[in-house]
Structures are given as structure tokens and as C-alpha cells.
Amino acid sequence: MSFIFKSIDHYQLASPKNTEDQSRKFFTEILMFKEVNKPRSLRSNGGLWFESGSIKIHIGTEDNFIPARKAHPALEVENLNDFKQHLITKHISFTVDERLPRANLIYLADPFGNRIEILEWI
Fold first, then answer.
1. In whole angstroms, what is the distance from residue 111 CA to residue 103 CA?
2. pLDDT tens, 18-75?
């Protein structure tokens, strides 16, 4: 084979139609991502795009939305304890999972019930 996969370019999560304001608030105020402009040719599809460093998350809207409760992005963070304190001050609940060796990790959900993993390797 003459090809290799280099990296994940972005991760897409779904949300119900017309929930861009809720997505914007969660991803910019809770996860501290920056909203970036979608290409003009894709704007009529709804949804939003966010970035933090090299991480890109696209939110696409669906008529018959079902949250992803098992499939999820796993975002690596530096200083998970500070992030957990940030979530507490924003009244965002999370679940600690201690089963992965050499990792501190938590799970939280976006406003629509999609699972998001946040981890710090130790």
C-alpha cells in the first residue's frame, strides 16, 4: 500500500436543528473553543465549526437527532484538575473514570447528550 493515515482532521457531532446558539455557548464558554467560519458553500446546512489548537469539532444539525452516548471524541487536556474546577464553576456535571491505566479522565455531555471524553495522560 502506498498510503497512510496522518491524523484526524476533525470530529463531527450532531445536534438538533436550530440549536446553534446552545452549541456556541457550550463550545465557546464551557470548552473554551473558538468558533471559526464555515465555508460559504456549507453554511446553508446549519451547524457550526470550532477549533482549539489543532483540534477541530464540527457540529452538524439533524432533523431526527439521536445523541451519541457511546461514540465520542476524546480530547487530551493539560491540567485536568483545573478543567474540572472550571466545569464545577459553570455547573457542568461530569463523571470520573479511573479504569484507563496512566490516565486521568472524565466524561461529560454537550447540551444535547453527546458524550465527550476529556483526558490527561500521567
1. 25
2. 999 999 999 999 999 999 999 999 999 999 999 999 999 999 999 999 999 999 999 9
Alpha helices by DSSP H, the chain: 20-25, 80-89
Grid cell for residue 1: 500500500
- What is the per-residue pLDDT for 3? 82
Identity of residue 85: Q
Dihedrals φ, ψ of 87, to 5°? -60, -40
DSSP 100: S
Instruction: Please give the grid coordinates belonging to residue 112.
Output: 444535547
Cβ density class 64-93: b for 16+ within 10 Å, e for less: eeebbeeebbebebeebeebbeebeeeebe
* The three three-digit cell numbers of residue 99, written as one number: 479504569
Structural contact between residues 119 and 76, judged by C-beta atoms closer than 8 angstroms: yes
Q: How far, in Å, are 3, 9, 78, 93 from residue 6 at the CA level?
A: 9, 9, 23, 34
Please tell me whether residue 59 adopts helix, strand or coil conformation. Answer: strand
Cell 483545573, residue located: 82
Helix, strand, or coil (residue 50): strand
